[in-house]
Amino acid sequence: MRSSWTIFGKAVAIVLTALLPPGGFASAGPLWPTTQAQQAFERELRALLLEEPEIIGRILTQDPYADEKAADKAMLQAMSGALFDPTRAGWGPAGIPVMVMLRAPECVPCQEAEHGLQDLAKSRGVRIGILDVTQEPALAQSLGMDTVPSYVFPQMMVRGDVPVFVLEGYLDR
User: Fold this and answer.
1) Contact criterion met (CB below 8 Å) for 128 and 97
2) What distance in Å separates the CA atoms of residue 51 and residue 19, rounded to the nearest whole number?
3) Per-residue pLDDT tens digits for 81-139
């Protein structure tokens, strides 16, 4: 029973958010003139959701970042030749990098991350490329990366420093 009320509560919150003006409750004035009106609305909404449960499924499975992810993937596809160039400096065997680290020479977290990436490249037998943002500023800027270290995979970008085990998990995807 609790889980159905949790789902119902989320659905109510989503519907209420959609009904409110951009300023939220403060600019809406009284949403219901009486408690009875509020209860009637809740009964109607509950009946609707019980009759058409797929509404909740659609609401709860929507990815709010879907458009950004699609734009990132399209950009990475367009830039893949420059990013994943087999001649790019890096660690591991020769070949196409499976990941590229954006770094700067004076960046201490970059230097610390490099040791783990070298070990990762060796243990996995993969190529990890390096993009020095001071030597290729236009390429780094076109990615929209504003912090180093950051990482680029063929299908996604990871902004900011993350532990090597997290990057390893992304390689397993």
Assistant:
1) yes
2) 21
3) 999 999 999 999 999 999 999 999 999 999 999 999 999 999 999 999 999 999 999 99
Q: Residue 104, Cβ neighbours under 10 Å: how many?
A: 17
HEC states along 118-148? HHHHHHHCCCEEEEECCCCHHHHHHHCCCCC
Q: How far is Cα 59 from Cα 50, in angstroms, rounded to an integer?
A: 14
Cα distances from 63 to residues 18, 58, 104, 137, 159, in angstroms, run: 16, 10, 33, 32, 19
Angular region, 99: left φ>0, alpha ψ -120 to 50, beta rest: beta
Answer yes or no: are the C-beta atoms of 103 and 114 closer than 8 Å: yes
**Amino acid in the structure at residue 54:** E
d(CA 21, CA 7): 23
Place of tokens 């912090």: 147
Among 59, 74, 82, CA closest to 139: 82
- Closest Cα to residue 154, out of 122, 117, 129, 134? 129
* SS3 call for 154: coil
57-68 pLDDT, tens digit each: 777 777 888 888
- Radius of gyration over alpha carbons of the chain, in Å? 24
Strand partners, 128: 91, 99
